[in-house]
């Protein structure tokens, strides 16, 4: 098992970065026999850590302001 660090790719969308981070997070947790994060918790964590990359016109994960 490798402990590869996630790096936000500014050439990719916020959603694409989240999906990569979540796959890596799940693999790491599985490797340490830890519980996989539910999607809602994972999205909140990702937003807290990488929310500064969100386009200000969009909400996290592809939603638009109403």
Detailed description of the structure:
- The protein has 2 helices and no strands.
- With 66 residues, it is mainly α.
- The protein has a domain at 14-51.
- The radius of gyration is 13 Å and the shape is globular.
- The model has no long low-confidence stretch (mean pLDDT 85).
Descriptive labels:
single chain; 66 residues; mainly alpha
Question: Strands, helices and their partners?
Answer:
Layout: H1 14-31, H2 39-50
Task: Report a brief summary of the structure.
It contains 2 helices and no strands.
**Radius of gyration, in angstroms, nearest whole number:** 13 Å
Number of helices: 2
Strand percentage, roughly?
under 5%
How far apart lie the N and C ends? 43 Å
Overall average residue pLDDT: 85
The number of E-state strands comes to 0
Main pleated-sheet profile: none
Which structural class should the secondary elements be placed in? Answer: mainly alpha
Query: Regions with pLDDT < 50 over 5+ consecutive residues?
Result: none
Order of helices and strands: HH
Shape: globular
Helix content: 40-55%
